[in-house]
Amino acid sequence: MKKISVIVIDDSALVRKLLSEILNSDPELEVVATAGDPYQAREKIKQFNPDVLTLDVEMPKMDGVTFLRNLMRLRPMPVVMVSTLTEKGAQITLEAMALGAFDFVEKPKLDLSQTLATYSDEIISKVKAAAGVQPEQLNQKAMLQVDERLTADAIIAKSSKNIPLKTTEKIVAIGASTGGTEAIKTVLCALPANAPGIVITQHIPASFSAPFADRVNKMSALNVSQAEDGEQILPGHVYIAPGDKHLLVERSGARYYCRLNDGPAVSRHKPSVDVLFRSVAQNVGANAIGIMLTGMGDDGARGMMEMKENGASNIVQDEKSSVVWGMPGAAYKLGAAELMLPLDKIAQEIMKQGR
Fold it and tell me: Could you say which of 3.40.630.120, 2.40.30.20, 3.40.50.180, 3.40.50.450 is the CATH number of the domain covering 160-354?
């Protein structure tokens, strides 16, 4: 079986060595070359024609975004960005995602002894996914292998209590992961200013969630912000989970509020879509519209099923328009969604159901 060939591009020799060792540790991957800057990378790409690149966001001579823009114009190929968890790194990485980068991983710390296994699993899975692993295989291969997988029970107990009576006010709950930043932007930018209130859990680092919200806010007719604990959910507003907190929806009378929770990772993620969707199932019920967008794994599938059981209308993104059909595919196969739509049709359906 032919190995997936990878070129590692980073200005740090130590990081190049570490990433190469991690990727070469998997029998399906082979680092065929490394490069210290984009000019070296250009020659190595011509020589080796790799399946995937890992690309440092910030480099001398030519930054990663400029290189990526040229690459996608002249020789498109799967790219996993390697990003520093800083505000500047977040802005550049989000721009890279808009230009067509497949996904991103945190730049490895040089003292990885305590977290090397988890970090290795993440970058290996994302490189494999970028190389074009089939969606049905992706769920098996790309999910991080860890000892414990908590469910939403760790944050919010499953309840059989009566769901509040249906009101005229809708709440839209969106979950996403790999490819989700661009998918979310596409949906939000197609919605009018009078759209229902929207809550979003996107798997994203803590330093990225606020810059991501700011970026979409500038492009959308909606008021988009990082969610804050206790704020009321209003029509025309979008609340994105902080990258290190679970986002839940609570109800008091006829009003809905954001609640943030600092509990453990659920379904291997914090924030977790399962946590958001369970809270929506229990507190919003038939007033809710659930949306599952592109992403690896199956976080949110069970929560979306609970939403359906409590009367919500659910939609998943179709396979063709998804970067990865793991999360929407898992929800659809579970029977949690009534509709499967291409990305560019979801906003229209939200407004149709939100009337």
Answer: 3.40.50.180
Tokens of 54: 């890992």
Of 42, 193, 15, whose CA–CA distance to 107 is shortest?
15
CA-to-CA distance for 145 and 156, rounded, in angstroms? 24
Q: Which of 299, 313, 318, 322 is catalytic?
A: 299
pTM, entire model: 0.88
Contact criterion met (CB below 8 Å) for 272 and 265: yes
pLDDT digit string (tens) for 120-129? 889 999 999 9
**Residue 298 appears among annotated catalytic residues:** no
pLDDT digits (tens, 9 = 90+) for 118-154: 788 899 999 999 998 443 333 333 333 334 567 888 8
- Among this protein's residues, is 299 annotated catalytic? yes
Q: Which CATH fold would you assign to the domain 4-133?
A: Rossmann fold (3.40.50)
Would you state the structure tokens that stand for residue 111, as one six-digit string?
A: 């003292």
Distance separating alpha carbons of residues 316 and 251, to the nearest angstrom? 25
Rounded Cα distance between 125 and 145, Å, is 10
Residue among 97, 339, 311, 100 nearest 205 (CA): 97
> Is the fold of 4-133 the same as that of 160-354?
yes
Domain ranges of the chain: 4-133, 160-354
In the residue annotation, 177 being an active-site residue is answered as yes
Composition of the chain by helix, strand, coil, percent to 5: 40, 20, 35
Question: Which of 125, 177, 220, 321 is an active site residue?
Answer: 177
List the catalytic residue out of 103, 121, 203, 220: 203
Cis preceding-peptide flag for 271 (omega within 30 of 0): yes
| Coil, strand or helix at 104 | strand
